[in-house]
Specification:
This protein is α/β, with parallel strands linked by helices. It contains 24 helices and 30 strands. The protein is globular and about 110 Å long.
Length: 803
């Protein structure tokens, strides 16, 4: 994401800049518009005014500064005056401390292999030029491949991208070619050359085509061969738009016979190697037969426009205010007393209530579509961040109820032992008596059943007999969920997986387990298990292999990754009335019973939607269908699909927390369910996005979060005192300058910092540029807009000039 900074001479300069944009809308602190540098159906350019009348413009689709300048008829010189002349109050830019340098690419790659994240991977190197190489890391355990850029600096080979635009892969081989083919990924480019077609690609995959320099292809005939999936097709459209601006003749050719996600490598592998000449002819013939690509005309119909692309997501606080009482007070008071984020208590609390309800109740959305009370939330946080205390607090009342049941079971088991001994003695006496003199045969006493609410063993073989004896369902609570995710194939010896059974447990479906000991076959007609726990970020990323995304299990997880904060001692305690009131509510949920079915078997009581709740559900369904349709990738689409019904599950829990005897779900519970579901959707997308971060992206995000914890305004000295990441003040200032160039914040100068009248230079974070409100019932369409405060009361004057 590049940011253009303009130093205008006055407000007329701002008006001139805004007047050159299309579909300008006024926001609270600036404007939004379509980006002039690419075919933009939705406003993705954010414009605001900083100190001294500076314009801050940010394209959330990633357009480069050069393309934005050219599109509005300005030059780069107009956009970027010399920084040292911009303000007489600014100190000169400090030199950046050099990163660790290596003597060769192999040495840098070897250092990367020593890290825990990449250890054990197979390495493939792709040399883009003499000074830039991308290293690919493949893993045998099914983990997704990873890439790391390495470039040559004055001091040696350095891990990371070089400054400026990146070269294209194999671009030096196509300088004399009339026709060039574009694919996605270095492996695909090599496959193209294997059948003798000139092929190039850009670095960093489908999401970063604008980071590369496409100018060497100017004026050429270009054929784009996209991967057969949505990211591949979006990549092709973006590249086509870039090349169209370079006067290229562009065609997009979809290779025949590809499965979902297939590419040119699969196209070649599906054919005999002796057919390489035919494959080359097929591709070249298809390229000549396809019409030339043309930009999509802009639409004036806003109702038919796709949903706006979102900027980089940041943490949004859990909507505690949406929870019903007494759950709301239980969560907020507990978080304040422990000193943790409220989400770390809210997630296990929701799972606890869902598990307590179990199969006794379902919510019917329409005939044939019911949702059970089953939730799988997970807190993603590193070690030492109060994960265990927060979960212990949330589950304490349920564990105490379980302890009472254990004591009852132990007393009943002791009585059973005595009764069984008496039975054996009476049976022996009965057998010795003569047949004509025998009384009725003694009845064998039935062993007691242990009522279970919560379990920690996650294997299906262990759960099956417990679920058979407890048809209401269970809560699986683990302090570390890594064992749950990695245990799905435990004791299977290559004979299948427990994943299908867990998918049934999520929907309260039937489960059949064939055991080696005891009862050979265990059948549970309605098996229901809610899950809660904590997991470290790296463990979750390694555990969620592609298999879990493909089968949909990952989409069923309700993830939350709250930012880490410094622990502080507090004398605050949770009021006794809060915990007692919520314990009473939990006891009422545990007392709920199933209804007798037509043949005497127990079945859930069905709660229907009240009329106002049904109206709200209909609106939610339409909104969510549109969001799912425009999901950026398959993982997000699957997540949104599960959260569609997840909102109803959350509403069912909220309704019964307020009134355990309720026979319908009302509008307040439905509103709470949709608000919390929106939050979970935004948080899961943020977690997925964090997994795709480069090390540089992660460093910038950590720095932004640190600034947010400091109130959004920091000095270099503040950073030096808050983290050991920066060895010198120059390192800290360089990191903040990188955020300024990215449009995340600005430098300001105070008249005095209170110490001998010297001016203080402070970095001010543009918080709105990174925050998306996922908690509001109907999010504002302009909520994504990046703004910074400050046009000194002159916004209305500028708005009049712009019209």
């Amino acid at each position: 994401m590049k940011t253009a900074t303009v130093e205008p001479t006055g407000l007329s300069r701002i008006a001139e800049f805004i007047a050159r944009l299309d579909r300008v809308r006024k926001t609270k602190d600036g404007w939004t518009s379509r980006c002039p540098a690419h075919e933009d159906r939705n406003p993705s350019l954010s414009v605001s005014v900083g100190d001294g009348g500076r314009i801050i413009a940010c394209c959330h689709a990633g357009c480069s500064i050069e393309s934005i300048a050219a599109a509005i008829g300005w030059t780069v010189r107009d956009l970027f005056p010399a920084e040292e002349n911009a303000s007489t109050n600014r100190r000169p830019r400090s030199p950046r401390k050099a990163k660790r340098a290596f003597r060769s690419v192999d040495a840098a790659a070897g250092a990367l292999l020593q890290t825990a994240e990449l250890r054990g991977a197979t390495v493939t190197k792709y040399a883009y030029s003499e000074s830039f190489t991308v290293v690919r890391f493949d893993f045998e355990n099914g983990r997704e491949k990873q890439f790391r850029p390495i470039h040559k600096a004055d001091s040696g080979w350095v891990i990371g991208d070089p400054p400026g635009l990146l070269p294209l892969f194999c671009v030096d081989k196509v300088s004399d070619c009339v026709t060039v083919h574009v694919v996605e990924g270095e492996k695909c480019a090599c496959a193209g050359w294997s059948i003798r077609i000139p092929t190039v690609t850009s670095a960093h995959g489908s999401h970063a085509p604008r980071k590369s320099d496409w100018s060497p292809l100017a004026g050429k005939s270009v054929v784009i061969l996209p991967d057969n999936d949505d990211p591949g097709r979006r990549y092709a459209e973006t590249v086509a738009g870039i090349l169209h601006e370079l006067d290229c003749s562009v065609t997009i050719v979809s290779l025949p016979g590809l499965s979902e996600g297939g590419d040119i490598v699969d196209f070649i592998d599906a054919r005999d190697s002796r057919e390489s000449e035919d494959m080359r002819s097929i591709i070249e013939t298809m390229g000549r037969g396809m019409p030339e690509w043309e930009p999509t005309p802009k639409s004036n119909n806003e109702d038919t426009e796709a949903l706006r692309p979102r900027p980089a997501l940041s943490w949004s606080p859990f909507p505690v205010e949406a929870l019903p009482e007494p759950m709301r007070s239980f969560v907020s008071e507990g978080a304040a007393a422990i000193g943790c984020d409220p989400s770390m208590i809210a997630l296990p609390t929701l799972a606890k209530c869902a598990g307590a309800i179990g199969t006794t109740r379902v919510v019917e959305l329409k005939r044939g579509w019911s949702e059970p009370s089953i939730l799988w939330p997970a807190v993603v946080a590193p070690s030492g961040t109060l994960k265990s205390p927060s979960q212990d607090y949330a589950l304490r009342s349920l564990r105490r109820a379980q302890e009472r049941r254990f004591r009852e079971y132990q007393a009943a088991a002791k009585e059973f032992e005595g009764a069984y001994l008496r039975y054996q003695a009476e049976l022996a006496t009965w057998k010795k008596s003569k047949p004509g003199q025998r009384d009725e045969q003694p009845k064998k006493p039935a062993p007691p059943l242990c009522v279970r609410y919560v379990v920690s063993d996650c294997t299906i073989e262990a759960l099956a007999p417990i679920l058979r004896d407890n048809p209401r369902g269970l809560l699986l609570a683990r302090d570390e969920l890594g064992g749950w995710l990695t245990g799905f194939n435990q004791y299977k010896s290559g004979k299948g997986s427990d994943v299908p059974n867990w998918l049934e447990l999520y929907r309260a479906g039937p489960v059949i387990v064939d055991r080696k000991t005891g009862t050979r076959t265990v059948y549970i007609p309605r098996a229901a298990v809610s899950v809660c726990g904590t997991i470290q970020p790296g463990t979750l990323q390694r555990a969620l292999t592609p298999e879990f995304f493909e089968c949909g299990l990952a989409a069923r997880l309700l993830l939350a990754a709250p930012p880490t904060t410094k622990k502080q001692w507090t004398e605050r305690e949770v009021p006794l009335r809060v915990t007692e009131r919520f314990a009473e509510t939990l006891a009422q949920l545990l007392a709920l019973e199933q209804a007798p079915g037509p043949h005497g078997e127990p079945e859930p009581v069905t709660l229907r939607l009240a009329p106002d709740a049904k109206t709200m559900w209909t609106e939610w369904y339409a909104e969510w269908a549109a969001r799912q349709h425009h999901a950026p990738d398959d993982r997000t689409a699957a997540l949104l699909s599960k959260l569609e019904g997840g909102a109803a599950r959350l509403a069912l829990v909220c309704e019964l927390v307020v009134d355990p005897g309720a026979m319908s779900v009302g509008s307040e519970a439905m509103r709470a369910g949709t608000i919390v579901a929106r939050w979970f959707a935004g948080e899961a997308e943020r977690v997925y996005e964090l997994w795709s971060e480069t090390p540089e992206d992660r460093e910038d995000r950590d720095l932004v979060e640190l600034c947010q914890r400091k109130g959004g305004v920091v000095t270099v000295r503040d950073l030096m005192r808050s983290t050991r990441r920066f060895a010198t003040a120059e390192d800290a200032e360089h990191a903040l300058n990188r955020l300024v160039r990215a449009g995340v914040g600005i430098w300001t100068t105070d008249e005095s910092d209170g110490k001998r009248g010297r001016p203080a230079r402070r970095f001010r974070l543009a918080v709105d540029a990174l925050t998306v409100d996922t908690n509001s019932e109907f999010p504002d369409e302009n909520a994504f807009v990046s703004t910074v405060n400050g046009v000194n009361g002159r916004e209305s004057e500028v708005e009049e000039w712009v019209g």
